[in-house]
Amino acid sequence: MIVANNYYIQPLQVPIAADLGISESLAAIAAALTQAGYALGLLLILPLGDLMDKRRMLTVLLLLAATMMLAFSMTTSGAALLPLAAAIGISSIVPQILPPAAVQILPPDQRGAAVGRILGGLLLGIILSRFVGGIVGGTLGWRWLYAIAAATMIALLILLRRTLPPLPPSYQGSYAALIRSLGPLVQRHAKLRSLSLIAAAQFAAFSLFWSRLVFLIADQGLDSPAIYAGWFAPIGAVGVIAAQFTGRPQRRIAAHRIVALGGALMAAGFATMTLAPLHLLWLVPAIMLLDLGMQTSHVASMAQILGMEPAAGSRLNTIYMSSRFAGGFVGTLIGALLWPLGGWMAVCTAGVALGATSILLAHAGQGLPAPRQSCD
């Protein structure tokens, strides 16, 4: 539910632009800024999960999220829309605190399955955000949607405060030293660098599609494109199933092959999407392939990364997820730039190219050395 804050805007760009009297391009930039804010929050705030009690972090971030969502629902200008969108992205990093917490608590043989379940919940939140954003936002209006989401953040805060145990820090030192330690982690783990680049390419493709879907539907002459876009979102639930499956130990399949398979599925999904202007039902198998491919690769990558140095789990997650959502920001911007130039076919071509790029990166990284443990 928390990660959904980052995605409500995607099916609602058209009605938000109309209500505020701004261009659809500016609304698309606001959608991109939620991704940029998320990446910034991952880079600068998530590492604190190694330095302070994670329960306390969750409290502060949920209060910030509720405040920003309420302010967004009340905004009346495009100028205020952009910084609020970025702030919503920053405050939405709450779910990323959970995988390192699971690794901190659980024994090694249970971590992969636990990460798979958590990431499955994250994907479900992304799926529901587009469904709820399209259906509820298209019916009640986008302002009511954001106001309801703000109240939901308060309810979640109360629930987490009552159920989550204290999660003490695993790093001793200053915040500045914590941030400086990110560089040595990147240098030490070649596999981390490879998987982060792959994640950036794949999430760029993922965001490219979902940020442009509502515009494809609008071009078909259908009324309330946000509602139609919302109905397509649950199709991606197959990715939740993938999260459960690929989070289990995969001793017979090399990790780089799983990651490359994810890229191939995503490229196939974009190739299928080229038929969508003929009939929107072609989006059904395309979305299944896209979400399945991304989540298959993502879960396999996370299981590797979080096992590198459990004591540095939040920082490893910071590096990987910052790269991933920086890719999402770039993908959303690519969509906004390509749409006026080549429309849907340009978007699909870029998506295939990004999927193919991730396959090449996966195979190039297969011979990289295993992570070296450190006590940093």
From TrEMBL:
Keyword vocabulary terms for this entry: Membrane, Transmembrane, Transmembrane helix
MF terms in GO: transmembrane transporter activity
Domain Major facilitator superfamily (MFS) profile: 1-367
Annotated TM spans: 26-46, 58-75, 81-106, 118-136, 142-160, 195-215, 227-246, 258-276, 318-338
Membrane among keywords: yes
PANTHER family: MAJOR FACILITATOR SUPERFAMILY (MFS) PROFILE DOMAIN-CONTAINING PROTEIN, TRANSPORTER SCO4007-RELATED
Protein's UniProt name: Arabinose efflux permease family protein
Annotated source species: Ketogulonicigenium vulgare (strain WSH-001)
